[in-house]
Amino acid sequence: MKRWNSKFVNWLLLGMGGLILFFFFYEVLPYHLLHREQMILFLFSPIELIQYFNNSGGLARLSGDFLTQFFCYKGAGPLIMAVVLVSWGVVVYKLSFPYLGRWAWFVVILAVIWETGKECGLNYPLSGTISLIGIGLVYLLCRFFIRKPLKWGVPISVFVISLGYWLWGYGNWSSSWYNTPDLRREKMLAIDSEFYFGHWQKAQKLLDEDNQASLLSTYYRNLYNAQRNQLPDKLMSYSQPLSQVLFLPISPSSNYIMIYAANEAWFAIGDMTMAEHAAILGMIFSPYQKGTRPIKRLAEINLINGDDAAALKYLRLLQKTLCYKRWAERRIPGNLSPDVQQWLKRKRELISQTDTLRLSTDVSASLIHLLNNNRDNFMARDYLLCFDLLNKDIASFVDHYQEFAKNMVPSGIYAEALLIYLAEKKTSAEEIKEWKISPFILNEFKNYSKLYQTSNGNAGLLKATFGNTYWYYFHNALIER
Predict the structure, then answer these.
(1) Where are the transmembrane segments (predicted)?
(2) Residue 183, phi-psi category: left (phi > 0), alpha (psi -120 to 50), beta (remainder)
(3) How confident is the model at residue 479, as a pLDDT?
(4) Residue 159 CB coordination number (10 Å)
(5) Would you say the C-alpha torsion 313, 250, 121, 213 has a positive or negative sign?
(6) Rounded to an integer, what distance in angstroms lies between the CA atom of residue 284 and that of residue 254?
(7) CA angle 52, 58, 63 (to 5 degrees)
(8) How far apart are CA 302 and CA 178, in angstroms?
(9) Is residue 77 helix, strand or coil?
(10) H helical segments located in 250-321
(11) Are 479 and 387 in contact (CB under 8 A)?
(12) Looking at residue 136, what is its pLDDT?
């Protein structure tokens, strides 16, 4: 009876530990797991599977990648993490109980917390934990053979250890020994993922809840507003760390998460050359130089460009996956599903029919090229004009406004910026009327100018009344040249 009670307590503790681990990853780090799935590409083909065993630890890596691919399903990632970490705890308990008795639970708790901390890192593979489980099972098996009065106990153990090393490796010790959950990073991954999957309501809710402005969150907030033709109306209603929040910079100092996200704005606007450039760089600088997310995006880009051969190269890879096979088959050229056909039609209306040479860092040239091919691309127009304004390049703004938005009635920051230009030229009142700027904005500009002069440009006083105007930004934002 006592032994039965002991087993019951053990199972109860395991169950409680599993539930705690499940809810930890489900509630605290769900997007962390989803991001890790996007960084791998598990191909279910004989050749790819055999390649796992070219080096030691092949079974651990194969098992880890196989399970990680299911992180794309809600709840599957936390469940897998809970099962794997509980299994690790069971192995530690089996190894230490003969020597520590009930104190083995203390070792188990420490070992599971330690391994959970490592799993909180973005670059620590699931195979790292599975490798430890495999090593533990090998030692348990060796202990079984050595304790038996068998003549071949030691030779068998040596063989088991050798085989175990080939199958399970020796663990992954390249990552930090412990990572605390990075909740800020989790928030950024959540915004990035929801935008990528087109869940606009979830993305908007996450942005509304984000009280700490960051480069990535402002970038996506601008993209969200631009897709609703509201970018100029809302540009000054939140902090703008200069023009890099319109198009994320790609440089040697950029992390791969930012590079991945950089293609989203270009893809939405219709510049597939720049989108492809960012997607490829994101894949190159990611931990494993592959991933389902960039492969899917590269397939979409080439479908939009009409390059079926290049699109098939990526789609055939995805056909060899378990989770994205159906996604790929619906996009095979010549066998497109109706919804994909409609999506392609909309995206192809934005792209350029001609090409031009330009630097990848020359944002204006890329946007002007898009507009020269399609004057109705309102997103490209707003991005170009707002790019000029965030750089405080009033001369370029006026030139581009007259070229691509001359039929508009200026409002919001466009009208505010035009008044700066007209004031610098000392334009007469009669000429100002020709720009059709509303009397309200004209009156506000007079009030701002008066307060600016009387307060000697006091930023605190100006912000209280005019903090959401372009005039305040123009006088107070620091531009790095």
Answers:
(1) 12-33, 71-91, 97-114, 126-146, 152-168
(2) alpha
(3) 55
(4) 13
(5) negative
(6) 13
(7) 90
(8) 41
(9) helix
(10) 256-269, 272-285, 292-305, 308-319
(11) no
(12) 92
Rg (CA), the chain: 29
DSSP conformation class of 410: -
* pLDDT tens by residue, 90-124: 999 999 988 898 888 999 999 999 999 999 988 89
At position 462, the amino acid (one-letter code) is: L
Q: What is the token pair recorded at 226?
A: 């631009």
CB 216 within 8 A of CB 258: yes
The answer to whether 135 touches 171, Cβ cutoff 8 Å, is: yes
Tokens 């996200």 locate to 261
The two tokens of residue 352 are 């350029």
- DSSP code string of 85-127: HHHHHHHHHHHHHHHHGGGHHHHHHHHHHHHHHHHTSTT--HH
- Compute the distance between CA of residue 467 and CA of residue 154 in angstroms, rounded to an integer: 78
Residue 388 CA, chain-centre distance (Å), reads 27
Residue 357 has pLDDT above 60, yes or no: yes
Which has more pLDDT, 153 or 173? Answer: 173
Q: Which two three-digit tokens encode residue 85?
A: 């970490």
| Residue in the block written with tokens 């100029």 | 232
Mean pLDDT of the chain: 88
Span 430-456, average pLDDT: 88
Mean pLDDT for 241-254 is: 80
Distance CA(140)–CA(332), nearest Å, equals 50
Q: Which tokens hold the place of 289?
A: 């130089």
CA–CA separation, 399 vs 231, rounded Å?
Answer: 19
| In the chain, domain spans | 2-168, 246-351, 409-481
Q: For residues 255-274, give the mean pLDDT.
A: 90
